[in-house]
Amino acid sequence: MRRAAAALALALGLLAxxxxxxxxxxxxxxQHGTKHAYLCYYHQPGTGGGVYATLLLFENWYxxxxxxxxxxVDETYVHSSAPGYAGAHRMxxxxxxxxxxxxxxxxxxxxxxxxxxxxxxxEQRSAMDFQxxxxxxxxxxxx
Length: 143
Description:
By secondary structure, this protein is an alpha+beta fold. It has one domain. It has 3 helices and 6 strands; from the N terminus they run αββββββαα. A 6-stranded antiparallel β-sheet has the order 1-2-3-4-5-6, sandwiched between helices. Strand 2 and strand 3 (50-55) form a beta hairpin. The longest helix has 16 residues, at 121-136. The radius of gyration is 15 Å and the shape is globular. Residues 1-21 have low confidence and may be disordered.
């Protein structure tokens, strides 16, 4: 698993980045040297290809490879300790170029019981399935 994640990181050029809620002991992640930088892969059977994550000091980036019928979802999560931010900040985008604009839904992610308002039906389904994938392996958002 670690070898595959390292190969993916090298292919994508992600290892030059720098940290989040992972540790050197997390079996899903590889750490970049002694830096606070991790590349992770979480596979949850039944939720698609899995969640890929790059965990950095002030940001986490997540990419969900979904089941057939869902849109690809990516999330950028900025930690509350990030310089220039008054609190944590989250953006979720879809492969159809849409994004979640429901601020109450974003603030409650990943604990929502219903889909985000103002999104298409495909985006709503994908957002809820992405949220399920994030919860299935208890993927954290804080470092």
